[in-house]
Amino acid sequence: MSAFATALEPGPTAPQHQHESFSFTLELRFLLSYEELIIVLPLRHLAITAAVACTAALPAALQAAEEPVTIYSSRIEQLLKPTLDRYTEETGVPVRMLTDRGNALMERLAAEGEGSPADLLITVDVGNLWQAADRGLLRPIQSESLENDIPAALRDPEGHWFGLSRRERTIFYNPNMVEESELSTYEDLADPKWEGKLCLRTSKQTYTQSLTAMLVAEHGEEATEEIARGWVNNLATDVFTSDTKLLEALAAGQCAVGIANTYYYGRLTNQDPEFPEKVKLFWANQGEGEGGAHVNLSGGGVTAHAKNPEGAIKLLEWLASAEAQTGYTHGTFEGPVNPNVEPEPIVKSWGTFTPNTTNAAEIGSLQPVAIRLLDRAGYR
Ligand SMILES: [Fe+2]
After folding, report:
1. Nearest residue to 86 (alpha-carbon basis) of 328, 298, 376, 358
2. For the domain bounded by 2-166+297-348, which CATH number is listed?
3. Around ion ligand 1, which residues have CB less than 5 A away?
């Protein structure tokens, strides 16, 4: 396999920003996906390897009896590989994988066109999934098995992509500084009562954009811009480039309240069982008519020019099955999309909540609106 390792050059959208105190080894442990790298370090500093870049380049001797499936994935290889290895063991189907940032993979798919070796695109964030479908990079598929295993809100109504893990973005607070009873909604964090107390992640991050897009779906563009302005006015400190740093700032009392993805909290809790005493999770928007907490996704779709679409669909069905969902979500502290699968114990300890039911496709489609309004609101 290593003979096919390929160092990827940064694409045209390679990030320029470099975080001064970036510690690669420390941060890498906290990465689920290459999306995380967009803000924290330039891609050229990474030696990204592809398990196999191109099926067409394989010597005939390496072609297995079963037709291989080729995945382009922005999910970090170490996280996905154990699950894929199990699939190969069980089915004999070889799985080849190329990993990079979601944007770079989409550019690559578009540039390769019909000649692309990719059968399946796996990426994180509904914005990316929606964009891949919108650009015609994914084909619509129908699968009873996927429809049974994945709730309707967590997949594209037209079948271009399917959620594979849930990642909630909710409110966290320092219990020495805030009473739980003071908390309610994302919108409320724009209230002047939180002035100088709020920690937020940068608007350059797709997670911020998706949460904002969900609010646009609920309130419209103008009202959401006002909310974003309120958030900016309430900031305790500069926006953060990582949710982990944000949660650590909450623990340190640098801010009282903030918004982050739950799986970062899961990983910090896994490392330090006392972390939940320093920072507590609050499920946002649980009151009547408040819409529910924001759910984002990692997910996948069959590529428009897949050479092995049947193999890609089978693999996707397997990833959503109860059998594979435990392996896919437990190591990452994400939530299974399949309701028949038990969440990892730390994830389970956060209890149940009412999720926002805006379809992920609508959130994705509103991301461009969200990006523009965040900019107008001065949210950096
Ligand atoms: Fe992340």
Report:
1. 328
2. 3.40.190.10
3. 32, 36
